[in-house]
Amino acid sequence: MIEANDAKKVVEVIGNNLIGVSHDSNNYQKLPDSFWGYFARGHDIKGKFGVIVTYSEDGKDVDELIKMYEDWAKKNKTKSE
Questions:
Q1: Are the beta carbons of 51 and 65 closer than 8 angstroms?
Q2: What are the angstrom distances between the C-alpha of 24 and each of 40, 56, 80?
Q3: Per-domain residue ranges for the chain?
Q4: Closest Cα partner for 81 from 54, 53, 47, 32?
Q5: Whole-model pTM?
């Protein structure tokens, strides 16, 4: 189980990273017309984490991305988990 302090660090890193991205309009130059995604990852002494933020005018795109991740996670889950 993840400890509260570790969860706090993860959310803090993600939030700070997204704030930095949001303040730079160059991050949004020449985006596709209907789909946009952002990926960030980080780590601390106990483990690693990643976050995917995605936007699509077609909700099916987001659903398919989540399904791909769920399939990947099932295939790569270790037996000890």
A1: no
A2: 16, 20, 42
A3: 4-76
A4: 47
A5: 0.54
